[in-house]
């Protein structure tokens, strides 16, 4: 699942006094000492942050050592200024699919890959702003069928395992030995699946709006659970489907999203997308809701989401991601979750926290699902700052 909205600013906070240098160093993955890379990969410590600032404070649940309140409040939580890519292009990953990619920030910096939500949501310029552009080499790409990738809204050769292979092809294309991974909503699903498949390639994880693609999560959002909170948004989604087909909305929408008639596809895609966009923020976000009127965006978003959810994420079992946490337990990880997330309710983040107590778990008490809600955005920036400081302080 994916959402985007209005950007914000919080008070400008300085970096920790512990830093030996205020100017951020330009790091290339291959130039980082082996000792540092090994510490990043093998450290089991949890550096939980105790946030004490106004209504944006996060509830932090962490089993490991924590930083002092002074250190925590001095971590930057402000979105970085907008930047443009310094390079972009397409990578052919199969005879059928080509992925759009872009790089921004520091060309010699520490590599981080951004995994967008949906699936099918694509990337946006605002995604670059979670990362310090002086420190990070920021890599964004549109997953198969999404955004600028081709062919648009294509479901053929489009599975979780194809996407995992694509991420590896991108890493090899950029000649990056290992990288930090950032993913929210469906991006958190893909980040977990990728890191569990290639734990030796991941130096750190930032996960937001946890989505484990279990049946109870799909049923909650697409089979009527969330309608208890958003009945006004639910009814247009429900009413597109005749009463005799409402026993399974996933199947009913799949039939229409894969119709031979393009207008039937568009109508279903608009209804599907608007339902999600209307529930993605704690407070309504009109800019986000308007995405449901964009047929080009909605078709990829709805078709690919429905395809993945109908196929249960292509995972072999309902609890697959939780069952494989041991493979990534050593990776420094921050989990950011809005308490009132309706799209990806907190039950999933809580289950992940219980299975992985070593990870730094931050609950935003006044937020829903969107990465661009103020409290969530602040903690995502802070999470990247935390992982940046781990690399710098161990360098």
TrEMBL record:
It catalyses: Release of N-terminal proline from a peptide. One of its GO terms (molecular function) is aminopeptidase activity. It comes from the Eukaryota. SUPFAM superfamilies: alpha/beta-Hydrolases (SSF53474). Residues 110-373 form the AB hydrolase-1 domain. The keyword Protease applies. Its EC number is 3.4.11.5. GO terms for biological process: proteolysis. InterPro entries: AB_hydrolase_1, AB_hydrolase_fold, Peptidase_S33, Pro_iminopeptidase. Its main location: cytoplasm. It is found in: Cytoplasm. Keywords: Aminopeptidase, Cytoplasm, Hydrolase, Protease. The keyword Nucleotidyltransferase does not apply. PANTHER family: PROLINE IMINOPEPTIDASE. This is Proline iminopeptidase. It comes from Eucalyptus globulus (Tasmanian blue gum).
């Amino acid at each position: 699942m994916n959402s985007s909205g209005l950007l914000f600013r919080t008070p400008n906070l300085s970096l920790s006094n512990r830093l030996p240098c205020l100017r951020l160093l330009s790091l290339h993955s291959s130039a980082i000492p082996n000792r540092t890379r090994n510490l990043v990969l093998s450290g089991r410590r949890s550096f939980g942050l105790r946030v004490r600032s106004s209504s944006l404070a996060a509830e932090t649940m962490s089993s490991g050592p924590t930083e002092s309140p002074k250190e925590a409040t001095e971590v930057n939580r402000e979105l970085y200024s907008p930047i443009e890519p310094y390079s972009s292009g397409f990578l052919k990953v199969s005879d059928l699919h080509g992925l759009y990619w872009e790089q921004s920030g520091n060309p010699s910096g520490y590599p981080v890959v951004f995994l967008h939500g949906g699936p099918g949501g694509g990337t946006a310029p605002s995604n670059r702003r979670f990362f310090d552009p002086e420190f990070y080499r920021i890599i964004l790409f549109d997953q198969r069928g999404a955004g600028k990738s081709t062919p648009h809204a294509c479901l053929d050769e489009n599975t979780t395992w194809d996407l995992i292979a694509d991420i590896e092809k991108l890493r090899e294309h950029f000649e990056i030995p290992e990288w930090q991974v950032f993913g929210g909503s469906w991006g958190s699903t893909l980040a977990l699946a990728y890191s569990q498949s290639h734990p030796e390639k991941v130096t750190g994880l930032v996960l937001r709006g946890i989505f484990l693609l279990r049946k109870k999560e799909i049923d909650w959002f697409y089979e009527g659970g969330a309608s208890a909170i958003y009945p006004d948004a639910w009814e247009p989604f429900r009413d597109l489907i005749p009463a005799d087909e409402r026993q399974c909305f996933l199947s009913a929408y799949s039939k229409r999203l894969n119709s031979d008639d393009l207008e039937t596809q568009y109508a279903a895609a608009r209804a599907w997308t608007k339902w999600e966009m209307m529930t993605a923020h704690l407070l309504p976000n009109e800019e986000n809701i308007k995405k449901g009127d964009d047929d080009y965006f909605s078709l990829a978003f709805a078709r690919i989401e429905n395809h993945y959810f109908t196929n249960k994420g292509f995972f072999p079992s309902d609890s697959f991601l939780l069952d494989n946490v041991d493979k990534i337990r050593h990776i420094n990880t921050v989990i950011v979750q809005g308490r009132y997330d309706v799209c990806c309710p907190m039950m999933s983040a809580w289950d992940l926290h219980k299975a992985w107590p070593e990870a730094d778990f931050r609950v935003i008490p006044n937020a829903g699902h969107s990465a661009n809600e103020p409290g969530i955005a602040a903690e995502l920036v802070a999470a990247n700052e935390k992982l940046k400081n781990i690399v710098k302080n161990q360098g």
